Amino acid sequence: xxxxxxxxxxxxxxxxxxxxxxxxxxxxxxxxxxxxxxxxxxxxxxxxxxxxxxxxxxxxxxxxxxxxxxxxxxxxxxxxxxxxxxxxxxxxxxxxxxxxxxxxxxxxxxxxxxxxxxxxxxxxxxxxxxxxxxxxxxxxxxxxxxxxxxxxxxxxxxxxxxxxxxxxxxxxxxxxxxxxxxxxxxxxxxxxxxxxxxxxxxxxxxxxxxxxxxxxxxxxxxxxxxxxxxxxxxxxxxxxxxxxxxxxxxxxxxxxxxxxxxxxxxxxxxxxxxxxxxxxxxxxxxxxxxxxxxxxxxxxxxxxxxxxxxxxxxxxxxx
Length: 319
Description:
By secondary structure, the chain is an alpha/beta fold. The protein contains ten helices and six strands. The protein has two domains: 2-179, no CATH class; 184-318, Glutaredoxin (3-Layer(aba) Sandwich), CATH 3.40.30.10.
């Protein structure tokens, strides 16, 4: 009888050990994959953080780098079995809880549409789906706390120190918060006559008078991936600062509009669909997205989509 009980305890021990190891490795893999995916799509992740209510692109980039670093840190701590019960498991639960609250804010602000950015652009996931994923991971971590742990081994503290320094600094080395450049200062006349008197009878006049006053006008193609990134960021800024005079001039096949707005969440931004490539590129210039800071039809700034910090825009509008 005692032998059977001992054998049963041994069996239960190994079941817990194997189950725990599998759960631990899966959890670690999710964190590491998530961190790598966000690194390869760093800018969209920053913009999603801005969409949750952070007004400054620079501050959002710091938060993004910190989140990515923590994901790498916890992923490697799990793999190397470092301070599991005393630090790693509670930290995993805390970080997943923060991510979940962030996703709830995204849903409140823009609904359950679009990609939450949890796995960068490697795997599209809605905020609600990501919340379910986080809750399952929290449950798995709680289970791990009770069934799987190891005592500290030799050199644990030194390994932990190396991992901490490497993981928390890597995102900031690759994407320094000070790297965001300001829009290019130019003085260029932009003839917007075609927006009101187009040669194409299918084009209706723009609903906003862009030739007078200050406006941020973005010329974008519906089929351009960089334009879609610019549109997503500009709609984030538009919702945070509805007083900013942002306007889209879109060019392309009208059948692409629903997908463009679905991906960029930008339908609420004032816009016009302008037909005809000739007149469009005569205004926009050679490449798109072409984002101009116009003052009485004079382009005083020209920006790429990664130069659209609301702080800079506000400074220009107040000049």
